[in-house]
Each structure stands twice: as structure tokens, then as C-alpha cells.
């Protein structure tokens, strides 16, 4: 698993030790990069969160990612888990969030991070296509995380336009001031109610 760990970033230090574990030139470069940036205006617009469904958050990954019968997908999940700091898959969801919170909160002037929900793949008839859903992160989970860490995160909902209640969910998300992201599953500019609403 050493190679997988290297592919995932090969971190060896805790996020709390960032400043003390990097070289002086690297520290100076980071300071220079943020020198004229107002941290209250700093936003990372693309921060993924995921889970195996080990808690009650509703997340899941496609079963093919959890078996060696699909080695490419299994290796990909192993890399994700290593990057997320997961040491115990039975506690994977909590460990991934703990690592993300520690990483983001230990960056001086960290600003805000837009946490991305990720909807399922859907058939045109509005039913979920779980075979083509690589992973799922419910909108409510992203709302819960941002409520728990309002100084770090802002929610970005994910709405597949083929979902039967897509327009209702889009309107609810807009009412909550969440940012919306819709999956690019729709081909050939087909007009669904959500696409028309956008």
C-alpha cells in the first residue's frame, strides 16, 4: 500500500504542524501567495466531501469500488481513503471529515470552502441508476457539515435534472441560499424543467 499512499499525497505530518514542518522558503512562498488577499473574500469553490455510509449521513460509494473484482475502481477508492486520512474504514466518514476540518482550519486566513454534494445518476424516467452512480453525497449531509462548521464551509447542492423532484429541490436549495450544481448528465441540450429554470 506504500505506492497508493504516495499517489494519495504521502502526507506524514499532522495539519496542525504545517507551519513547523515545511521549509522556510516554502513558508515564505505561501505568505507571498496570500500577501494581498483579504481572507474574508477568499473562497475555494470546489471542495469534495465523500463517505462510505458508515454513519447516518446517507453517503455511499458504488459497490464495485469495494471489491478487487474491479481492481481499477478498488485502487481508486484506496487512494481516496488514503488522501482522506482514513485508517479505519468502519469510521471512514468521520475520519474524512475530521481530516478536512483539520486541513482547512489550520491554514492561516483560510477563507471559506464550498462543499459539494453529489447527486446520483438517473435514468430519463427519473429513477436512480445506481449502477452508474460512482458515489453519492446527499444535499442534507452538506447542509449538516456547513451548519457544524460555518466558519469553514458553505453548501453547494447537487441536483441531477432527471430526478423526479429536481425542480422542487432546486427551489428549496435557492431558498436556503445554497449554491446549485447540476450534473452534466443531460446530453444534446435536452430540455428538462431544471434546465429551463436555470
Topology:
Layout: H1 2-7, H2 18-21, H3 24-33, E1 43-48, E2 60-61, H4 71-83, H5 92-105, E3 112-116, E4 135-136, H6 139-148, E5 153-159, H7 166-175, E6 179-182, H8 193-197
Parallel strand pairs: 1-3, 3-5, 5-6
Antiparallel strand pairs: 2-4
Summarize this structure as a short list of keywords or feature phrases.
alpha/beta, 198 residues, 13% strand, two-stranded antiparallel ribbon, four-stranded parallel β-sheet, 36% helix
Description:
36% of the residues lie in helices and 13% in strands. About 4% of the residues have low confidence. It has eight helices and six strands. Helix 7 links the parallel strand 5 and strand 6. The chain is α/β, with parallel strands linked by helices and 198 residues long. The protein has a four-stranded parallel beta sheet with strand order 1-3-5-6. Strands 2-4 form a two-stranded antiparallel sheet.
As laid out across the biggest beta sheet, the strand order is 1-3-5-6
Runs with pLDDT <50, length 5+?
182-189
Helix content: 25-40%
Structural class: alpha/beta
Distance linking N and C termini: 45 Å
Range of strand content: 5-15%
Total strands: 6
Tally of discrete structural domains: 1
- Sketch the topology as an H/E string, one letter per element: HHHEEHHEEHEHEH
Characterize the main sheet.
4 strands, parallel
Whole-angstrom Rg: 19 Å
Give the helix tally: 8
